[in-house]
Amino acid sequence: MWVFSTAGCRWLGAAGSLAVTVGGWAAGTLPVRGGWGLWQPRASGVETAGAVLAYLGLTLLLLAWWQYGRQLTAGAGGRPLLTLGWWAGPLVLAPPLYSADVYSYIAQGAMVLEGHDVYGSGPSVLAPGELGHDAAASVGGHWTDTPAPYGPVFLVLAQAVVKLTGGQILPAVLGFRLLALAALALIVWAVRGLGGGPGALWLAALNPLLLIHVVGGLHNDGLMIALVLCGVLLAVRGRWVTGSAVLGLAMMVKSPAAVALLFVGVLVARRRGVLAGLVLPGAVAGAVAAGATVLAGTGFGWLRTQSVAATIHTALSVTSDVGLGLGLLVGDDPEPVKGTVQKLGLLVAVAIIGVPAWRVWKGRLDVVLGLGVSLLVLVALSPMVQPWYVLWGVCAVAAVAWDTRLGQFLAVLCAALTYETAPSGHTPAYGFALAGVALALGLVWMRRERWEAGAGAPLTPGRADAGPTVPPTRRSAARPRSRTGR
Description:
Layout: H1 6-27, H2 44-73, H3 80-88, H4 101-114, H5 133-137, H6 152-165, H7 169-193, H8 198-204, H9 208-216, H10 221-236, H11 240-251, H12 259-272, H13 274-296, H14 318-330, H15 335-361, H16 367-380, H17 391-401, H18 405-417, H19 429-448
Helix pairs in contact: 1-2, 1-3, 2-8, 4-6, 6-7, 7-10, 8-17, 10-11, 10-12, 10-17, 11-12, 11-13, 12-13, 12-15, 12-16, 14-15, 15-16, 16-17, 17-18, 18-19
Protein backbone atom coordinates (compact mmCIF):
# COMPACT_ATOMS: atom_id res chain seq x y z
CA MET A 1 0.00 0.00 0.00
CA TRP A 2 1.20 3.53 -0.83
CA VAL A 3 0.57 4.76 2.70
CA PHE A 4 3.22 2.32 3.95
CA SER A 5 5.84 3.38 1.40
CA THR A 6 8.53 5.81 2.52
CA ALA A 7 6.68 8.64 0.76
CA GLY A 8 3.42 7.57 2.36
CA CYS A 9 5.05 7.45 5.77
CA ARG A 10 6.34 10.97 5.18
CA TRP A 11 2.80 12.25 4.57
CA LEU A 12 1.29 10.23 7.41
CA GLY A 13 3.89 11.47 9.89
CA ALA A 14 3.44 15.07 8.76
CA ALA A 15 -0.32 14.75 9.28
CA GLY A 16 0.31 13.35 12.75
CA SER A 17 2.73 16.15 13.62
CA LEU A 18 0.23 18.73 12.39
CA ALA A 19 -2.50 17.17 14.54
CA VAL A 20 -0.22 17.30 17.59
CA THR A 21 0.41 20.99 16.90
CA VAL A 22 -3.24 21.89 16.36
CA GLY A 23 -4.27 19.92 19.44
CA GLY A 24 -1.51 21.63 21.38
CA TRP A 25 -3.02 25.05 20.72
CA ALA A 26 -5.94 23.91 22.88
CA ALA A 27 -4.32 21.38 25.21
CA GLY A 28 -0.61 22.18 25.27
CA THR A 29 1.38 23.58 28.18
CA LEU A 30 -0.15 27.02 27.73
CA PRO A 31 0.99 30.05 29.74
CA VAL A 32 -1.11 31.39 32.57
CA ARG A 33 -0.73 34.85 31.06
CA GLY A 34 1.34 36.59 28.42
CA GLY A 35 0.25 34.44 25.48
CA TRP A 36 -0.96 37.47 23.52
CA GLY A 37 -4.44 35.92 23.25
CA LEU A 38 -3.09 33.13 21.06
CA TRP A 39 -1.76 30.78 23.71
CA GLN A 40 -4.13 30.82 26.64
CA PRO A 41 -6.07 28.25 28.70
CA ARG A 42 -9.21 27.03 26.94
CA ALA A 43 -12.59 25.80 28.12
CA SER A 44 -12.50 22.25 29.43
CA GLY A 45 -14.38 20.84 26.43
CA VAL A 46 -12.02 22.47 23.96
CA GLU A 47 -9.01 21.34 25.98
CA THR A 48 -10.26 17.74 26.03
CA ALA A 49 -10.87 17.76 22.28
CA GLY A 50 -7.40 19.19 21.73
CA ALA A 51 -5.82 16.50 23.90
CA VAL A 52 -7.63 13.74 22.00
CA LEU A 53 -6.49 15.23 18.69
CA ALA A 54 -2.92 15.47 19.93
CA TYR A 55 -2.90 11.85 21.10
CA LEU A 56 -4.35 10.69 17.77
CA GLY A 57 -1.74 12.74 15.93
CA LEU A 58 1.02 11.27 18.10
CA THR A 59 -0.23 7.77 17.25
CA LEU A 60 -0.15 8.58 13.52
CA LEU A 61 3.39 9.92 13.87
CA LEU A 62 4.47 6.78 15.73
CA LEU A 63 2.88 4.49 13.14
CA ALA A 64 4.59 6.41 10.33
CA TRP A 65 7.94 6.27 12.16
CA TRP A 66 7.62 2.55 12.87
CA GLN A 67 6.79 1.68 9.27
CA TYR A 68 9.50 4.04 8.02
CA GLY A 69 12.04 2.15 10.11
CA ARG A 70 10.84 -1.17 8.73
CA GLN A 71 11.30 0.21 5.23
CA LEU A 72 14.86 1.22 6.07
CA THR A 73 15.72 -2.22 7.42
CA ALA A 74 14.57 -3.60 4.07
CA GLY A 75 17.06 -1.35 2.28
CA ALA A 76 14.94 1.65 1.27
CA GLY A 77 16.79 4.98 1.16
CA GLY A 78 13.95 7.00 2.54
CA ARG A 79 15.37 10.56 2.16
CA PRO A 80 15.46 11.04 5.95
CA LEU A 81 16.35 14.73 5.95
CA LEU A 82 13.33 15.56 3.81
CA THR A 83 11.18 13.45 6.09
CA LEU A 84 12.62 15.21 9.14
CA GLY A 85 11.62 18.57 7.69
CA TRP A 86 8.09 17.38 7.10
CA TRP A 87 7.71 15.93 10.58
CA ALA A 88 9.42 18.70 12.54
CA GLY A 89 8.01 21.60 10.51
CA PRO A 90 4.49 21.71 11.99
CA LEU A 91 5.89 21.70 15.53
CA VAL A 92 7.83 24.92 14.98
CA LEU A 93 4.74 27.09 15.51
CA ALA A 94 3.27 24.99 18.30
CA PRO A 95 2.97 26.34 21.84
CA PRO A 96 5.12 24.58 24.46
CA LEU A 97 4.13 20.92 24.47
CA TYR A 98 4.45 18.18 27.09
CA SER A 99 6.38 20.34 29.56
CA ALA A 100 6.48 23.75 31.24
CA ASP A 101 10.28 23.74 31.42
CA VAL A 102 10.64 26.48 28.83
CA TYR A 103 8.96 28.92 31.21
CA SER A 104 11.69 28.10 33.75
CA TYR A 105 14.29 28.77 31.07
CA ILE A 106 12.77 32.18 30.32
CA ALA A 107 12.48 33.04 34.00
CA GLN A 108 16.06 31.94 34.73
CA GLY A 109 17.41 34.00 31.85
CA ALA A 110 15.44 36.96 33.21
CA MET A 111 16.77 36.37 36.72
CA VAL A 112 20.34 36.72 35.47
CA LEU A 113 19.49 39.95 33.66
CA GLU A 114 17.65 41.32 36.70
CA GLY A 115 20.59 40.56 39.01
CA HIS A 116 19.07 37.67 40.97
CA ASP A 117 21.14 34.68 42.05
CA VAL A 118 19.82 31.96 39.78
CA TYR A 119 21.59 29.31 41.88
CA GLY A 120 20.26 30.62 45.17
CA SER A 121 16.56 31.01 44.47
CA GLY A 122 13.83 30.07 42.05
CA PRO A 123 11.71 32.01 39.51
CA SER A 124 9.30 33.12 42.24
CA VAL A 125 11.72 35.94 43.14
CA LEU A 126 10.80 37.80 39.94
CA ALA A 127 8.57 40.69 40.95
CA PRO A 128 5.84 42.34 38.89
CA GLY A 129 7.42 44.64 36.35
CA GLU A 130 10.61 42.60 36.09
CA LEU A 131 11.54 40.66 32.98
CA GLY A 132 10.20 37.12 33.03
CA HIS A 133 7.51 37.70 35.63
CA ASP A 134 4.80 36.35 33.30
CA ALA A 135 6.91 33.29 32.53
CA ALA A 136 7.53 32.69 36.24
CA ALA A 137 3.77 32.51 36.78
CA SER A 138 3.63 29.53 34.39
CA VAL A 139 6.50 27.55 35.91
CA GLY A 140 5.49 24.15 37.26
CA GLY A 141 4.66 24.31 40.97
CA HIS A 142 7.57 22.34 42.37
CA TRP A 143 10.06 24.28 40.23
CA THR A 144 8.88 27.73 41.26
CA ASP A 145 11.26 27.96 44.21
CA THR A 146 13.94 25.60 42.84
CA PRO A 147 17.36 27.03 41.88
CA ALA A 148 18.60 26.38 38.36
CA PRO A 149 20.35 23.01 37.91
CA TYR A 150 21.83 24.12 34.57
CA GLY A 151 25.30 25.34 33.77
CA PRO A 152 26.29 28.89 32.80
CA VAL A 153 26.53 28.15 29.05
CA PHE A 154 22.82 27.45 28.92
CA LEU A 155 22.04 30.43 31.15
CA VAL A 156 23.97 32.70 28.76
CA LEU A 157 21.81 31.43 25.90
CA ALA A 158 18.67 31.87 28.01
CA GLN A 159 19.48 35.45 28.93
CA ALA A 160 20.29 36.20 25.29
CA VAL A 161 16.84 34.98 24.25
CA VAL A 162 15.16 36.99 27.02
CA LYS A 163 17.13 40.12 26.17
CA LEU A 164 16.29 39.88 22.47
CA THR A 165 12.59 39.25 23.10
CA GLY A 166 12.07 41.48 26.14
CA GLY A 167 11.01 38.41 28.12
CA GLN A 168 7.69 38.26 26.25
CA ILE A 169 6.52 34.66 26.35
CA LEU A 170 5.51 34.02 22.74
CA PRO A 171 8.64 35.40 21.04
CA ALA A 172 10.85 33.95 23.78
CA VAL A 173 9.38 30.49 23.22
CA LEU A 174 10.06 30.82 19.50
CA GLY A 175 13.62 31.90 20.35
CA PHE A 176 14.16 28.75 22.38
CA ARG A 177 12.65 26.75 19.55
CA LEU A 178 15.33 28.11 17.24
CA LEU A 179 17.90 26.79 19.73
CA ALA A 180 16.12 23.43 19.69
CA LEU A 181 16.22 23.33 15.88
CA ALA A 182 19.92 24.21 15.94
CA ALA A 183 20.47 21.31 18.36
CA LEU A 184 18.53 19.01 16.04
CA ALA A 185 20.71 20.07 13.11
CA LEU A 186 23.87 19.37 15.13
CA ILE A 187 22.55 15.94 16.11
CA VAL A 188 21.97 15.13 12.44
CA TRP A 189 25.46 16.34 11.51
CA ALA A 190 27.15 14.39 14.28
CA VAL A 191 25.23 11.16 13.69
CA ARG A 192 26.10 11.28 10.00
CA GLY A 193 29.71 12.09 10.84
CA LEU A 194 29.88 9.07 13.14
CA GLY A 195 28.97 6.85 10.20
CA GLY A 196 25.21 6.77 10.64
CA GLY A 197 23.10 6.42 7.51
CA PRO A 198 19.33 6.83 7.05
CA GLY A 199 18.55 4.21 9.69
CA ALA A 200 20.66 5.96 12.31
CA LEU A 201 18.86 9.22 11.61
CA TRP A 202 15.57 7.34 11.91
CA LEU A 203 16.30 6.28 15.50
CA ALA A 204 18.03 9.52 16.51
CA ALA A 205 16.58 12.58 14.77
CA LEU A 206 13.27 11.27 13.40
CA ASN A 207 12.42 9.69 16.74
CA PRO A 208 8.98 10.99 17.85
CA LEU A 209 10.21 11.12 21.45
CA LEU A 210 12.89 13.59 20.38
CA LEU A 211 10.56 15.56 18.12
CA ILE A 212 7.87 16.12 20.73
CA HIS A 213 10.20 16.78 23.67
CA VAL A 214 13.06 18.67 22.03
CA VAL A 215 11.27 20.52 19.20
CA GLY A 216 7.83 20.58 20.82
CA GLY A 217 8.83 20.61 24.50
CA LEU A 218 12.01 22.68 24.01
CA HIS A 219 14.08 20.69 26.52
CA ASN A 220 17.72 21.70 26.72
CA ASP A 221 18.62 18.00 26.72
CA GLY A 222 18.64 18.33 22.93
CA LEU A 223 21.47 20.86 23.13
CA MET A 224 23.42 18.69 25.57
CA ILE A 225 23.03 15.63 23.32
CA ALA A 226 24.12 17.63 20.28
CA LEU A 227 27.26 18.93 21.96
CA VAL A 228 28.13 15.49 23.36
CA LEU A 229 27.86 13.86 19.95
CA CYS A 230 29.86 16.65 18.32
CA GLY A 231 32.57 16.40 20.98
CA VAL A 232 32.85 12.63 20.59
CA LEU A 233 32.89 12.93 16.80
CA LEU A 234 35.82 15.32 17.00
CA ALA A 235 37.62 13.00 19.41
CA VAL A 236 37.24 9.89 17.24
CA ARG A 237 38.60 11.92 14.33
CA GLY A 238 41.73 12.58 16.36
CA ARG A 239 40.87 16.13 17.48
CA TRP A 240 40.47 15.20 21.12
CA VAL A 241 41.45 18.63 22.48
CA THR A 242 38.68 20.37 20.56
CA GLY A 243 36.33 17.51 21.35
CA SER A 244 37.07 17.78 25.07
CA ALA A 245 36.46 21.54 24.91
CA VAL A 246 33.07 20.93 23.29
CA LEU A 247 32.26 18.41 26.01
CA GLY A 248 33.16 21.09 28.56
CA LEU A 249 30.49 23.29 26.97
CA ALA A 250 28.03 20.38 27.03
CA MET A 251 28.67 19.91 30.75
CA MET A 252 27.84 23.58 31.24
CA VAL A 253 24.42 22.89 29.75
CA LYS A 254 23.70 19.74 31.77
CA SER A 255 26.19 17.82 33.90
CA PRO A 256 25.51 14.24 32.65
CA ALA A 257 27.57 15.14 29.58
CA ALA A 258 30.61 14.45 31.78
CA VAL A 259 30.16 10.71 31.10
CA ALA A 260 31.45 11.29 27.56
CA LEU A 261 34.77 12.50 28.98
CA LEU A 262 35.45 8.99 30.27
CA PHE A 263 35.30 7.58 26.76
CA VAL A 264 37.32 10.39 25.24
CA GLY A 265 39.83 9.66 27.98
CA VAL A 266 39.94 6.01 26.87
CA LEU A 267 40.65 7.12 23.29
CA VAL A 268 43.45 9.38 24.47
CA ALA A 269 44.84 6.67 26.74
CA ARG A 270 45.05 4.22 23.85
CA ARG A 271 47.04 6.74 21.82
CA ARG A 272 49.09 8.63 24.42
CA GLY A 273 49.15 6.47 27.53
CA VAL A 274 46.98 5.90 30.58
CA LEU A 275 48.14 9.00 32.48
CA ALA A 276 47.33 11.26 29.53
CA GLY A 277 43.89 9.69 29.21
CA LEU A 278 43.15 10.14 32.88
CA VAL A 279 44.24 13.78 33.03
CA LEU A 280 44.20 15.63 29.71
CA PRO A 281 40.55 15.46 28.49
CA GLY A 282 39.28 16.32 31.98
CA ALA A 283 41.75 19.17 32.28
CA VAL A 284 40.66 20.66 28.95
CA ALA A 285 36.95 20.29 29.73
CA GLY A 286 37.46 21.62 33.25
CA ALA A 287 39.29 24.68 31.97
CA VAL A 288 36.49 25.36 29.49
CA ALA A 289 33.86 24.92 32.20
CA ALA A 290 35.69 27.26 34.58
CA GLY A 291 36.27 29.83 31.85
CA ALA A 292 32.63 29.71 30.77
CA THR A 293 31.53 30.18 34.37
CA VAL A 294 33.76 33.20 34.87
CA LEU A 295 32.78 34.80 31.57
CA ALA A 296 29.08 34.20 32.17
CA GLY A 297 29.25 35.96 35.53
CA THR A 298 26.72 33.62 37.12
CA GLY A 299 29.15 32.17 39.64
CA PHE A 300 29.98 28.60 40.52
CA GLY A 301 26.66 27.96 42.23
CA TRP A 302 25.90 25.25 39.68
CA LEU A 303 28.26 23.00 41.66
CA ARG A 304 25.81 22.89 44.56
CA THR A 305 22.53 22.68 42.59
CA GLN A 306 23.20 19.45 40.69
CA SER A 307 21.23 17.46 43.26
CA VAL A 308 18.11 19.65 43.38
CA ALA A 309 16.30 17.51 40.84
CA ALA A 310 16.60 14.48 43.11
CA THR A 311 14.29 16.17 45.61
CA ILE A 312 11.42 15.86 43.12
CA HIS A 313 9.98 12.35 42.87
CA THR A 314 9.45 10.95 39.38
CA ALA A 315 7.70 7.63 38.90
CA LEU A 316 10.15 6.51 36.21
CA SER A 317 13.09 6.53 38.66
CA VAL A 318 13.56 2.98 39.92
CA THR A 319 15.85 4.00 42.76
CA SER A 320 13.43 6.69 43.94
CA ASP A 321 10.49 4.28 43.84
CA VAL A 322 12.39 1.54 45.69
CA GLY A 323 13.78 4.02 48.19
CA LEU A 324 10.36 5.49 48.87
CA GLY A 325 8.82 2.05 49.33
CA LEU A 326 11.55 0.91 51.72
CA GLY A 327 11.39 4.20 53.59
CA LEU A 328 7.66 3.83 54.18
CA LEU A 329 8.20 0.31 55.47
CA VAL A 330 10.79 1.25 58.08
CA GLY A 331 9.54 4.59 59.37
CA ASP A 332 7.27 7.60 59.10
CA ASP A 333 9.78 9.71 57.20
CA PRO A 334 10.91 7.87 54.05
CA GLU A 335 13.28 10.58 52.83
CA PRO A 336 16.51 9.40 54.57
CA VAL A 337 16.11 5.86 53.22
CA LYS A 338 15.09 7.13 49.81
CA GLY A 339 18.15 9.40 49.65
CA THR A 340 20.43 6.50 50.60
CA VAL A 341 18.97 4.24 47.90
CA GLN A 342 19.33 7.02 45.34
CA LYS A 343 23.01 7.45 46.19
CA LEU A 344 23.57 3.69 46.05
CA GLY A 345 21.92 3.67 42.62
CA LEU A 346 24.40 6.24 41.35
CA LEU A 347 27.32 4.25 42.78
CA VAL A 348 26.07 1.12 41.05
CA ALA A 349 25.71 3.11 37.80
CA VAL A 350 29.33 4.26 38.07
CA ALA A 351 30.48 0.66 38.60
CA ILE A 352 28.48 -0.62 35.64
CA ILE A 353 29.70 2.19 33.38
CA GLY A 354 33.22 0.98 34.06
CA VAL A 355 32.45 -2.23 32.14
CA PRO A 356 31.83 -0.70 28.68
CA ALA A 357 34.72 1.72 29.28
CA TRP A 358 37.00 -1.26 29.95
CA ARG A 359 35.73 -3.06 26.84
CA VAL A 360 36.44 0.01 24.73
CA TRP A 361 39.93 0.16 26.24
CA LYS A 362 40.51 -3.48 25.29
CA GLY A 363 39.28 -2.90 21.75
CA ARG A 364 36.19 -5.09 22.17
CA LEU A 365 33.50 -2.44 21.90
CA ASP A 366 32.85 0.59 19.74
CA VAL A 367 33.50 3.78 21.72
CA VAL A 368 30.25 5.45 20.64
CA LEU A 369 28.21 2.37 21.51
CA GLY A 370 29.96 2.18 24.87
CA LEU A 371 29.04 5.81 25.55
CA GLY A 372 25.42 5.21 24.55
CA VAL A 373 25.06 2.17 26.80
CA SER A 374 26.68 4.05 29.69
CA LEU A 375 24.29 6.97 29.38
CA LEU A 376 21.35 4.55 29.34
CA VAL A 377 22.66 2.95 32.54
CA LEU A 378 23.01 6.36 34.16
CA VAL A 379 19.41 7.23 33.26
CA ALA A 380 18.08 3.89 34.51
CA LEU A 381 19.68 4.37 37.95
CA SER A 382 19.28 8.14 38.32
CA PRO A 383 17.26 9.63 41.20
CA MET A 384 15.19 11.60 38.71
CA VAL A 385 14.11 10.20 35.34
CA GLN A 386 12.00 11.91 32.71
CA PRO A 387 10.86 10.19 29.48
CA TRP A 388 13.18 12.23 27.26
CA TYR A 389 16.27 11.38 29.34
CA VAL A 390 16.52 8.07 27.49
CA LEU A 391 17.46 10.10 24.40
CA TRP A 392 20.87 10.79 25.98
CA GLY A 393 21.92 7.25 25.17
CA VAL A 394 19.59 6.49 22.28
CA CYS A 395 21.15 9.06 19.96
CA ALA A 396 24.63 7.63 20.54
CA VAL A 397 23.49 4.03 20.08
CA ALA A 398 21.62 5.05 16.93
CA ALA A 399 24.79 6.27 15.23
CA VAL A 400 26.42 2.83 15.26
CA ALA A 401 23.85 0.20 16.24
CA TRP A 402 20.39 1.30 15.19
CA ASP A 403 19.50 -2.01 13.50
CA THR A 404 20.60 -4.35 16.30
CA ARG A 405 18.35 -5.91 18.89
CA LEU A 406 19.40 -3.12 21.25
CA GLY A 407 18.39 -0.51 18.69
CA GLN A 408 15.09 -2.26 18.11
CA PHE A 409 14.36 -2.37 21.84
CA LEU A 410 15.24 1.29 22.25
CA ALA A 411 12.85 2.14 19.41
CA VAL A 412 10.08 0.28 21.25
CA LEU A 413 10.97 1.97 24.54
CA CYS A 414 10.94 5.43 22.93
CA ALA A 415 7.56 4.74 21.32
CA ALA A 416 6.10 3.74 24.67
CA LEU A 417 7.56 6.72 26.53
CA THR A 418 5.97 9.20 24.11
CA TYR A 419 2.61 8.40 25.68
CA GLU A 420 3.68 8.88 29.30
CA THR A 421 3.26 12.67 29.31
CA ALA A 422 0.14 14.54 28.24
CA PRO A 423 0.40 17.61 25.94
CA SER A 424 -0.36 19.74 29.00
CA GLY A 425 2.81 18.49 30.68
CA HIS A 426 0.99 16.42 33.28
CA THR A 427 1.58 12.69 33.75
CA PRO A 428 -1.91 11.19 34.07
CA ALA A 429 -2.56 7.55 34.95
CA TYR A 430 -3.89 6.87 31.46
CA GLY A 431 -0.56 8.05 30.07
CA PHE A 432 1.21 5.23 31.90
CA ALA A 433 -1.51 2.82 30.73
CA LEU A 434 -1.05 3.85 27.09
CA ALA A 435 2.71 3.56 27.49
CA GLY A 436 2.28 0.05 28.88
CA VAL A 437 0.10 -0.99 25.96
CA ALA A 438 2.59 0.46 23.47
CA LEU A 439 5.47 -1.31 25.21
CA ALA A 440 3.64 -4.66 25.18
CA LEU A 441 2.78 -4.34 21.49
CA GLY A 442 6.34 -3.34 20.71
CA LEU A 443 7.78 -6.36 22.52
CA VAL A 444 5.45 -8.65 20.58
CA TRP A 445 6.67 -7.02 17.36
CA MET A 446 10.28 -7.54 18.46
CA ARG A 447 9.62 -11.23 18.94
CA ARG A 448 8.00 -11.62 15.54
CA GLU A 449 10.37 -9.43 13.56
CA ARG A 450 13.89 -9.76 14.86
CA TRP A 451 16.62 -7.32 13.88
CA GLU A 452 19.87 -9.24 13.87
CA ALA A 453 22.37 -6.91 12.20
CA GLY A 454 25.83 -6.59 13.68
CA ALA A 455 26.15 -2.81 13.85
CA GLY A 456 27.09 -3.00 17.50
CA ALA A 457 29.38 -5.99 17.23
CA PRO A 458 32.75 -5.88 18.98
CA LEU A 459 35.48 -4.16 17.05
CA THR A 460 38.55 -5.86 15.83
CA PRO A 461 41.14 -5.45 18.60
CA GLY A 462 42.99 -2.19 18.18
CA ARG A 463 40.17 -0.42 16.39
CA ALA A 464 38.41 1.18 19.37
CA ASP A 465 40.54 4.28 19.04
CA ALA A 466 39.65 4.78 15.42
CA GLY A 467 36.02 5.63 16.02
CA PRO A 468 32.89 3.76 14.97
CA THR A 469 32.71 1.32 12.14
CA VAL A 470 29.73 0.50 9.97
CA PRO A 471 29.30 -3.16 9.09
CA PRO A 472 27.96 -4.18 5.66
CA THR A 473 24.98 -5.98 7.13
CA ARG A 474 22.18 -4.05 5.46
CA ARG A 475 22.20 -1.74 2.52
CA SER A 476 20.71 1.09 4.57
CA ALA A 477 23.31 0.67 7.31
CA ALA A 478 26.28 0.34 5.00
CA ARG A 479 26.06 3.64 3.18
CA PRO A 480 27.45 6.20 5.61
CA ARG A 481 28.92 8.29 2.81
CA SER A 482 26.13 8.14 0.20
CA ARG A 483 23.48 10.25 1.92
CA THR A 484 20.10 10.17 0.27
CA GLY A 485 18.25 12.94 2.05
CA ARG A 486 20.48 15.95 1.57
